[in-house]
Amino acid sequence: MSGRTNANIYLRGKTYWGRLQIAGREHRSSLRTADPREARRRLKQWKTELEREAVTGDSDQLFEEAVIRWITEVLATSVKPQTMRRYTISIRSLEDTFKGVRVRDITTRLISNFVSGRSGSVTNATIRRDLTALSRLLSACVAWGWITSNPALSFDRTIIRERRDPITPPCPDSVARVKAACPPGMAAILDLLEQTGMRENEAVSLTGDNVDHERQQIRLLRTKTSRPRTIAWVTPGGDATALLEQAPRTGCLFPNRH
């Protein structure tokens, strides 16, 4: 093995195997690599897992057990409802491949099988979101001591690149016709979106306190990333001065009249 011997590692064909004696029991397993350095790393990782299992007995947690704990202990207290819904959708997709599988048996090969099964039936963007959910779940399993590493992080996502079609903004005449057909409040929101480029959820939650008339800035508190940000309402791309100068100085800028 490149000048270094290890009695616990041996070759079968071109693949290295590991042999360990833990708690009076002999274990043998393929290390699934032909690289001696990687074989030593995997043997060390495997030994750590076997020693932990010998002490705790925690070797048989299933994928669905991990999901239940992840949802109740992690997601329920740390993510937005919209993110929770997205993860839940991904979990349903993951169950076809991983339900009944021990967490410790989830490998990059099994993840690759999941990707192959989804390819062609859903977009690459959807598959990548599913892998993100799986990776978050397995990271929690690492934190709980169920596994020592996250195989989803080892999966090369560059093979499922997300293709984005170019965005073609509507022409000014189309925007004007839509705003003319809207109630005044909705037209004002559309006007603000057009002039500032902010997101819809950011605009509809604005209050007079978020608007700095002296600096001509808007403080956005409810953002997609949950991190507040400040934008100018006069930019090369638009000018919302006329709209905001007429808006209420207190309370909601766009109150729901119903």
TrEMBL record:
A biological process from GO: DNA recombination
A GO molecular-function annotation: DNA binding
Tyr recombinase domain mapped to chain residues: 162-258
Keywords: DNA integration, DNA recombination, DNA-binding
InterPro entries for this protein: CB (IPR044068), DNA_brk_join_enz (IPR011010), Integrase-like_cat_sf (IPR013762), Integrase_catalytic (IPR002104), Integrase_recombinase_N (IPR010998), Integrase_SAM-like_N (IPR004107)
Keyword Magnesium on entry: no
The UniProt record lists the keyword RNA-binding: no
Residue ranges of domain Core-binding (CB) in the record: 61-142
Name of the protein in question: Tyrosine recombinase XerC
